[in-house]
Write a structure and sequence with these properties.
Layout lengths: L1 H36 L2 E14 L6 E14 L6 E7 L1 E3 L2 E3 L12 E9 L4 E4 L6 E6 L6 E2 L6 H18 L1
Antiparallel strand pairs: 1-2, 1-6, 2-3, 4-5, 6-7, 6-8, 8-9
Helix pairs in contact: 1-2
């Protein structure tokens, strides 16, 4: 009988340890997939946003201009890059799409970008997952993600993965 009452505790502890050890691996898998599939990865700051209707006035798009800071992957060398996102506001009319990244004026970001060769434009890879907002940690003064991961650590992980893939090819 005593062994039976310990069974729920053992199961709870077992699943607790498994979930703790698996969680970082899931994050790394998602990051690796973003790095793998992005044509360009860079950090920068939002310098301009402009929303407009498409030619048939059926959809709103927003061009977001990013003042580039550091290129982590790809051969993009421009000082700015223009990203096209679905949605935005034109006059009194607004359009929003779920899982589409939204940008704030002067926001610092890390972006995973895909080139759209069909219309020669750039888009964020994987929607809102391809945009990481960078904020300043009030205590350390370092740039961190919203989950308080140091941007220096994240950039190192990205560069290491890119270098590893380059050496394999």
């Amino acid at each position: 009988m005593k062994n039976l009452s310990l069974l729920p505790l053992i199961i709870f502890l077992l699943f607790g340890f498994l979930s703790v050890s698996v969680f970082p691996q899931v994050i790394n898998t998602e990051l690796n997939a973003l790095v793998e599939n992005a044509d360009i990865i860079l950090t920068g700051k939002v310098s301009e946003k402009n929303s407009y209707w498409n030619n048939h006035k059926t959809r709103i798009y927003t061009d977001v201009v990013i003042q580039t800071d550091e290129n982590l992957k790809g051969n993009y060398t421009g000082e700015t890059i223009r990203i096209v996102t679905a949605g935005g506001e034109v006059g009194e009319i607004g359009e929003m799409y779920s899982h589409t990244p939204r940008f704030k004026d002067n926001e610092e970001v890390l972006l995973f970008i895909k080139k759209d060769n069909k219309n020669n434009s750039y888009k964020i890879l994987e929607g809102e997952n391809g945009k990481i907002s960078l904020i300043e940690n009030k205590i350390t003064g370092e740039k961190v993600t919203s989950s308080n991961k140091k941007i220096s650590t994240l950039k190192k992980e990205i560069k290491d993965y890119v270098n590893k893939k380059t050496q394999q090819n």
